[in-house]
Amino acid sequence: MADDRHFFLRDHWEYDPSAPRYIRDDAGRGIDTKSLHSGFHPYQNQDDFRSFTPPLVQSVTYPYETFDKIPCPVYGRTRTPTNTVLEERLASLEGAESCITAGSGSQALFELIFTMARPGDNVVTSLNIFGEGYKQATDIFPKRCNIDFRFVQDPEDPDSWAEQMDEKTKLVCIETRL
User: Fold this and answer.
1) Which DSSP letter does residue 137 get?
2) pLDDT tens, residue order, the chain (178 aa)
3) Exposed, middle or buried by CB within 10 Å (0-12, 13-18, 19+), for 158?
4) 126 in any annotated domain
5) Phi/psi class of residue 66: alpha, beta or left (left: φ > 0; alpha: ψ in -120 to 50)?
6) How far from chain centre, in Å, is Cα 81?
7) What is the C-alpha to C-alpha distance for residues 87 and 143, in angstroms, rounded to an integer?
């Protein structure tokens, strides 16, 4: 973890359908092995845990060795050694290159939009979104980030969604109510 690039310094990512499919090193392992062992290696992760099994790390702040060297993790809301193991295990189970977890649905939605969209882009959604998502769509992103949200008139009609999309649409957010 100490050599990882900090989440806030990572380059912008965009989906490239022509890119070669990522194959994980542990792709040949079974689901039980991945569930129990991915993301944690007692000898490789000694600096993070000093343990043969990953304990729950309850700290929310981490010490700086010097002010010009940013620790990783730096703050518990962004990352902890425990989160890192969980994210690596989930990515392994899904065959993904990486994974990110969030403390709440609101945080997950914010991180997704903030990562995918840039000023001048838009997101297409409906009024069938939960309260905090609505607040982000009508207030936070349009006013603070210049990201427009377009609301479809009839969420059950695919044409209603298509009418709102254009070349600046970065995300289509659909929420259902059961």
Assistant:
1) I
2) 444 555 455 566 677 889 898 899 999 999 999 998 898 888 887 777 778 888 787 777 777 777 777 666 666 666 778 888 999 999 999 999 888 888 788 888 898 899 889 999 999 999 888 888 889 999 999 999 999 999 999 999 999 999 999 999 999 998 876 5
3) exposed
4) yes
5) beta
6) 16
7) 32
3 in a structural domain: yes
Asked if the structure places residue 178 within a domain, the reply is no
17 and 89 housed in the same domain: yes
Per the CB < 8 A criterion, the answer to whether 59 and 76 are in contact is yes
79 and 127: one domain?
Answer: no
Query: CB under 8 Å to 163, separation ≥6 — which residues?
Result: 152
Going by C-alpha positions, the residue among 58, 72, 169, 85 that lies closest to residue 123 is 169
Are 117 and 170 in contact by the 8 Å Cβ rule? The answer is: yes
Burial of 160 per CB tally in 10 Å (0-12, 13-18, 19+): middle
Q: Are 97 and 109 members of one domain?
A: no
Residue 94: which domain range?
1-101
Q: Which residue has the tokens 């290696």?
A: 41
